[in-house]
């Protein structure tokens, strides 16, 4: 790859406006935004003016043919991700897609079939990339915390009716779900990043307060291959908003409380009696693994992930978060919806090819697309 990474932004709405600048200021790897595309000319013009991109298009195929980007930052509504990702990959461009990577596991597997080495496919799950998560992963790997026993994973956010009234939100065929898919997916991804493969989920979903085709709250119990169990809540109707993750290990409780991004001071470690060595190790940032030194930034966020994505592109290695890892998170979302709809415990094999919830997060729900 040339020294300068050529980036195109497709979908120049809220997320692109807020975060695209971080692509070109994310550390040692040089990158520039060479083009942008949006079907809404007003939004496109505002983006071009703010980010100084030289070329604007209303059509992704034209952008790919003329601007030949190395990387496309895909910020369109989720219902477009599969087709647009395939167009990028087939043109040879790698893809960095905003969550959720696709509407269903089937769509994600269709994308997987078009991925090469390069072109790569990565999903934005920016909260994996703050220093606290890296430090915790390293401590887990070192064995100092002991076995993970219990986790709490709460995304209790507030979204008013106007949020759901945006045409692509809260619909199975355009968003692929409600707050489980659209909001809580970040905390669940952080939890899976730490605890690994899940083996069973039991869930309920409810539509308590918003006019929406999907749920506005979900509750789940998740079992992990390592024996840990977790309680998960995803809500769009909680006036006191919070993102909360708690892990009870044999030798310490580790918690992080934040909203849309954490800093070092948002983490709390409570050692088990007689295990002050764990607290000392946390405070020193000591670890048996190498990622802590690389995570210079305390704050989780797009900037932190983008820096790693650009380094990976330069080095010819898979940029984070790779498809197989975002697939595991999407499978848990499918599992929650499947369990809630069927009133049964669900295993990963229950959302595999051939199963209704593999094809669509709406699965077997009557009347859903
Ligand atoms: N990582 C995060 O924390 C985070 C936060 C919010 C949203 N998101 C995700 O980012 C994505 C975009 O969300 P948003 O809030 O910016 O939405 P948005 O509606 O503000 O922006 C989407 C843009 O895509 C454009 N668009 C629609 N059809 C298009 C097409 N065919 N070609 C090109 N452009 C097209 C729209 O005109 C709009 O400007 C979603 O997947 C969402 O889930 C991620």
From TrEMBL:
Domain GFO/IDH/MocA-like oxidoreductase: 135-242
Annotated ranges, domain Gfo/Idh/MocA-like oxidoreductase N-terminal: 5-115
Pfam family, any one: GFO_IDH_MocA
Residue span of region Disordered: 343-369
InterPro entries: Gfo/Idh/MocA-like_OxRdtase_N (IPR000683), Gfo/Idh/MocA_Oxidoreductase (IPR052515), GFO_IDH_MocA-like_dom (IPR055170), NAD(P)-bd_dom_sf (IPR036291)
Stated name of the protein: Gfo/Idh/MocA family oxidoreductase
Species name: Streptomyces cynarae
């Amino acid at each position: 790859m040339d020294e300068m990474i050529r980036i195109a932004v497709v979908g120049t709405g809220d997320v692109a406006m807020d975060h695209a600048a971080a692509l070109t200021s994310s550390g040692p790897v040089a990158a520039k935004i060479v083009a942008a595309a949006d079907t809404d000319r007003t939004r496109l013009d505002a983006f071009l003016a703010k980010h100084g991109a030289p070329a604007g298009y209303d059509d992704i195929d034209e952008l790919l043919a003329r601007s030949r980007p190395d990387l496309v930052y895909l910020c369109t509504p989720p219902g477009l991700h599969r087709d647009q990702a395939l167009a990028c990959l087939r043109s040879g461009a790698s893809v960095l897609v905003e969550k959720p990577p696709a509407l269903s596991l089937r769509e994600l597997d269709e994308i997987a079939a078009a991925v090469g080495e390069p072109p790569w496919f990565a999903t934005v799950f920016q909260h994996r990339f703050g220093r606290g998560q890296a430090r915790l992963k390293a401590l887990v790997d070192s064995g100092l915390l002991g076995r993970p026993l219990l986790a709490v994973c709460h995304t209790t956010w507030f979204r008013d009716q106007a949020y759901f009234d945006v045409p692509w939100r809260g619909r199975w065929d355009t968003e692929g779900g409600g707050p489980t898919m659209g909001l809580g997916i970040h905390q669940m991804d952080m939890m899976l990043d730490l605890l690994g493969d899940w083996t069973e989920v039991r869930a309920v979903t409810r539509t308590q307060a918003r006019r929406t085709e999907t749920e506005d709250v979900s509750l789940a119990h998740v079992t992990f291959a390592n024996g840990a169990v977790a309680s998960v809540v995803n809500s769009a109707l909680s006036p006191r908003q919070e993102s909360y993750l708690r892990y009870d290990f044999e030798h310490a409780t580790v918690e992080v409380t934040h909203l849309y991004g954490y800093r070092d001071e948002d983490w709390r470690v409570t050692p088990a009696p007689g295990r002050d060595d764990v607290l000392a190790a946390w405070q020193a940032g000591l670890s048996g693994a190498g990622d802590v030194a690389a995570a210079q930034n305390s704050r989780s966020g797009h900037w932190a992930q983008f820096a790693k994505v650009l380094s990976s592109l330069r080095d010819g290695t898979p940029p984070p978060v790779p498809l197989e890892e975002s697939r595991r998170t999407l499978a848990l979302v499918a599992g929650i919806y499947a369990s809630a709809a069927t009133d049964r415990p669900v295993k990963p094999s229950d959302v595999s090819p051939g199963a209704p919830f593999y094809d669509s997060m709406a699965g077997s729900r009557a009347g859903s697309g």
